[in-house]
Amino acid sequence: MGVLDGQTGHPYGLHRVLAPERVLPQPAWKLDAESDLYDNELLIAVERLNIDSASFMQMREECRDDVNKIKQCILEIVAERGKMQNPVTGSGGMLIGTVEKTGPRYPHRHVRPGMKIATLVSLTLTPLKLEQINRVHLETGQVDVKGKAVLFASGPFAILPDDLPEAVALAALDVAGAPAQTARLIRGRERIVVMGAGGKSGLLSLCQAWKKAGTNGQVIALESRAEACAEIRQLGLAHQVLEVDATDPLAVYEAVSGATAGEMADLTLNCVNVPGTELPSILATRDGGTIYFFSMAVRFTTAALGAEGIGKDVQMMIGNGYAPGHAKLTLQTLRECPPLLELFRKRYGSC
């Protein structure tokens, strides 16, 4: 792929949108991943995708854990759309790779070919072309590939650190928005509930909740898997760890009510990777409380209408994958909590 001399692309990538016209890359149906590099873009030799949890779970279920079918599903989506955007969940993930080329007007002048980076923008808006898929890691949602991707002038990224395995850094950076937003939201809130606490976003959010509120507040972890509950207890990042199905409204309500003596949560962090957790989140939260929906499986019309239907006055926030300094905070969260880092190494370090 060459460089289009003197042709500057739109900083938000509108020049790569093929259909429909006059929309941004994320909601677009198809992107141009074939054209030469515009002079303000970055070209990446892609080595690994991190498919977001909700999307990968959906593909695993649809393909019944058949690795070859999952590979074919990903290849077909990328070939058809010029990006990785699951048509069922609408979500994507992120990638790591090596900087191959920078346009002469690419704004981040410190970036050089050969640098290993992780994109901090969704695959749903990243022009992507895959030559092949080498391996699918079923337990982590990471996929070893050979391909090319384009990063727009506005796209944030992180240079991969030397002190962490690449797969560990990728797993953490994929959900960097969650712990960063948790650190903001925790102030002044005493009772914190983390739903889906055993996943990577849940664990990192739990760590921030414990750091900010653990001494004077109450941190409650909800997780459906017994093994994950045991891991959370060993980490010591929650006052109570409750084995509860997050899709069961009454079970969640009864568990949180019992743990808080009927007071319910001041802040509920939803990090669950399956649908149907909107009403349980609302029931877990007190009137006047806040729910942070980081999960990509959440349907926000269901959440809004559900709160209205049960007469619950709660503030509901859409999870934003970006916050200033979120990559640095997330990696530092791992470094400052050796047991959590060891768990991430165990889960992702051998990928």
From TrEMBL:
Signal peptide stretch: none
Domain L-erythro-3,5-diaminohexanoate dehydrogenase N-terminal: 15-161
InterPro entries, per database record: KDD_N, NAD(P)-bd_dom_sf
Coiled-coil zones: none
Name of this protein: Zinc-binding dehydrogenase
